[in-house]
Amino acid sequence: MLTLTTGKAAIAGIIIALWTIAAVWAVVTGLLMRRRAGDAAAEAGRLSQLLGASPSVPMLIRIDGRVEAPDKLGDWLGLGRVPNFVVDFAGTGNGLTDEDATALAKDVTAAQKSAKPFVRSMRPQESSRTLLMRGARAPAAIGGGVLVWVYDATESQVEIGKLGGEVARLTRAFDALTQLIEAAPIPMWHRGPDLRLTLVNRAYVEAVDAASAEDAVARGLELVEIAGGVGPIAAASAARDAGEVRSRIVPATIAGQRRSVRIVDVPLGDAGVAGYALDNDDLERANGAFRRFADAQRDTLDRLSAGVAQFGADRSLTFCNMPFQRMFALKPEWVADRPEFDRVLERMREAGRVPEVRDFPGWKAERREWFTSADGATEEAWLLAGGLHLRVVAQPLPDGGLLLIFEDRTEQVQLASARDTLLRVREATFDNLFEAIGVFAGDGRLHVWNNKFREVWGFDEALLASHPRVDTLAEAAAPSLSSPQRASLIRDLVRTATIERKARSGRVALKDGRHFEFAAVPLPDGNALFTMLDITDSRRIERALRDRTDALEAADKVKSAFVANMSYELRTPLTSIGGFAEMLSQGYAGTLSDQAGDYVKAILESVAKLGLLVDDVLQMTQSDAKLIAVDRETVDLVQLLDAVAVEHEAAIADKNQELVRDFSTDTGRVAGDAKPLRDAIGLLLAGAIADTPAEGRILIHASGTSEGALLVVSDNGPGSGSDPAMLTRVRSLVGAAGGRVTAMAEPGEGTAVQITLTR
To answer: Pfam families annotated for this entry (predicted)?
Structure first.
């Protein structure tokens, strides 16, 4: 047994202690490493779970081209497992397309050689999934190659598409808004957070007389000046701090003119403050014009006969005209209180100016719906007590109010009733007229007819009810006429009356022997009235009268011949008596005593008068028989009248009468026999002298036209008329001269005889 020295023992103790410490360290280190390994495993598990839940999958492509990736990537590609190489990512009906697989392989090769990262979006075949591959060279710690992160970007792409569409929409809206602001006729601007100008429109540029919008912004040209101690920036700041829109009216110089403008500042939060300016002068003028228009409108409504009432959005009475107040017996002071709609209806009911209904509250509720009617204006007819008829129009207004119009239609209704009565009376009268009547419209169709019209032609009622054209009626009427071709005359008459607006008439005979006188007359409404009057009896009477006239004319000719012959027979003994009396007066039978001389003188005067009478009778009979030979010559009427007047001047002077000659320069000449005309004027003048008292007045008037001449002999005598026998002789003489005589007498006024001669 060896004995150790103290020094060796100490060394041995140290060594043992060191071994003990090393053992303890080893144990502790092992425990620590074990713990760290557990922690690492747990961390690896958490990382694996996190990676599995991640929308991205790592894919390591080694330098030799082999692919390492979770099976999840194979599911995304629709391949079931991850292929060994990138080129195998392409498949038939699944996986990537050949083009995408080739492009991915090129991106990987480029990343390996030049360390160029890449990003590529791909969509597997027959899949709606979108994969985003983001690749770069792998760190050296994992062996190099290329590390590709594959993201499932399906939802992201959809959201990106939506966001892209929204961005496009907002971009278009922003562009439209920008263009709208730029085209606005009022100045508009925007201030940034620092309240400096950042954007102005064209109207602003023109208002501040800047070169451009950029120039106005760069120079900070303000539209308005400091007013009331407040500048434009301070006002914008106050609006921003208060967080509310503020406006103020300030003076401004716009386009070189001093104007009053309303400045409106609109806070936009962190985006700054927007503003715009309204021309207050134009607004005031517009308000003034609107007030004047409203006043004029109300003045016009007051002048209407219809009652008008307007209610506001709160259903209170805002306006009513005087006819409305009178119609419903409303006092002005009551109307001035702006009563509510229901109160107005109740007051109208008290005045007896609403229809009698059992459920008045329900009736009022229905009328309140007028304010919100979606069908626009509502129209009603109110029949009130006493026979009053009101037409009511309710028009909802855009501001929520209501406009009511009440029109008194009582008179119109009464007139309509009277018109209907007149129409019925006219129809009854129309149907019972002796005349056949038909009214044709402007297009030639039969519009109205009476029973006589149908009976005359024997038309079927169904034919007339179809309102046939005149062509059809003429064709249907032809068989009834004695001359069927005359049916076209009906069509011509109606067309003349409706189109040419001329009246025509005529006669037509039917086969049954009846005769009708017809006429087509244009009516004021564009229609034509066709009438037919049965003149069968008149035709028979006319024929009988014509036969009687012929007989009378024959007898008159016999009488005229007898009188003419008698006149010639009387002339012979008168000539002998006159001749012997003339011989006695000249002393052929010896000297006659004074008494015998007076007898002979009386015989000669009687013979002369009897000769004149015989000549007159002979002339009258020859004129009636048209046996007088007219000596045609040109007769100067003024000269003829002067000559006749001279012949009677002595007789006029004896009675101290006044003879007035009124001869117009257009009297002229006529062609005819001067002798009978001169004799006629002489007879008229002699008759006027005889009928007019002493100091009376006699007028001879003469005037003419291109067609004829007018001669007048008048007096201011008692107006008893000229001697009928004398007038008969004058008419005979004037008739021989180719003229006609008209006599007029007015008791107490005188007599006038007018002779009309043709050229």
So the answer is: HisKA, PAS_7
Beta bridge partners of 319: 310
Cα angle 518, 520, 521; round to 5:
130
SS3 (DSSP) at 572: helix
Same domain, 29 and 74: no
Number of domains in the chain: 7
In this structure, the answer to whether residues 47 and 58 fall within a common structural domain is: no
Rounded to whole angstroms, the Cα distance separating 539 from 519 reads 17
Distances in Å between the Cα of 46 and the Cα atoms of 39, 399, 544, 646 are 10, 69, 143, 162
**546 with 530, same domain?**
no
Residue 96 lies in a domain: yes
**Full DSSP string of 181-207:** HHH-SS-EEEE-TT--EEEE-HHHHHH
32 and 74 within one domain: no
Residue 677 and residue 733 in contact, taking contact as beta carbons nearer than 8 Å: yes
Assess contact for 630 and 736: CB atoms under 8 A: yes
- Tens-digit pLDDT profile for residues 338-393: 999 999 999 989 888 888 888 999 999 999 999 988 888 899 998 888 788 899 99
Q: Are residues 754 and 634 in the same domain?
A: yes
Residues 6+ apart with CB under 8 A from 20: none
In terms of DSSP bridges, do strands 246-254 and 317-320 run parallel, antiparallel, or are they unpaired? unpaired
Domain span at residue 645? 629-758
Flag whether 557 is in a domain: yes
| Contact in structure between 568 and 618 (CB atoms under 8 Å) | yes
CA distance 101 to 375: 67
The CA distance from 628 to 522, in Å, is 49
d(CA 511, CA 588): 83
Same domain, 34 and 101: no
Range with the largest mean pLDDT of 48-57, 133-142, 491-500, 555-564: 491-500
pLDDT higher than 90, residue 713: yes
**Inside any domain, residue 59:** yes
User: pLDDT tens across 224-279, in order?
Assistant: 877 767 888 888 888 889 889 988 888 887 767 777 888 899 998 888 899 988 88
Are β-strands 528-534 and 658-663 bridged in parallel, bridged antiparallel, or unpaired?
unpaired
DSSP string covering 434-445: SSEEEEE-TTSB
The domain spanning residue 462 has which CATH number?
3.30.450.20
**Dihedral over alpha carbons 49, 53, 56, 62 (to 10 degrees):** 30
Residue 661 belongs to a domain with what CATH number? Answer: 3.30.565.10
706 in the same domain as 612: no
* Neighbour tally for 13: CB within 10 Å: 10
Residues ≥6 apart with Cβ < 8 Å to 646: none
464 inside domain: yes
pLDDT, one tens digit per residue, over 50-89 is 555 566 788 888 888 888 888 787 778 777 788 888 777 8
CB of 660 closer than 8 Å to CB of 696: no
